[in-house]
Amino acid sequence: MTLAEKKLWYDYLRQSEHRWLRQKAVGNFIVDFYCPKVKLVIEIDGVTHLKDKEIIYDRNRTRELEKLGIKVLRFWNDDILQGIGEVEIIIEKEIENRKLNPPTPFVKGGN
After folding, report:
1. Contact in structure between 9 and 81 (CB atoms under 8 Å)
2. What CATH number is attached to the domain comprising 29?
3. Which bin fits 43, alpha (ψ -120 to 50), beta or left (φ > 0)?
């Protein structure tokens, strides 16, 4: 894990009332953190994600996960390292939102 991933894991997710999985295979992807109960993924991005090719890949990856009814939250390394409290608030708000509005996966076809 990167320094930011370790901080998020040890300072917050590991002690969360919600079960989080690290480096979890979801669909065709390995995600940084995944909470199956509310179908929430957290991705921690560094400077490599600023390249055009990576931006396109991340966008397509998010779209594919959303088709499975999964919400993807992305944070920069610095968001975690310098503002973990704000990140925790954002995650908790999204968990509550997902509980109130459970996700439904995209279904191909249908009438």
Report:
1. no
2. 3.40.960.10
3. beta
Range of the domain at 83: 3-100
- Token pair of 80 as six digits: 């975690």
What digits encode the pLDDT tens for the residues 6-44?
A: 999 999 999 999 999 999 999 889 999 999 999 999 999
Q: What is the Cα–Cα distance from 52 to 74, expressed in whole angstroms?
A: 17
Q: What's the total number of domains in the chain?
A: 1
Taking the model in full, what pTM does it have?
0.86
Stretch 101-105: mean pLDDT? 76
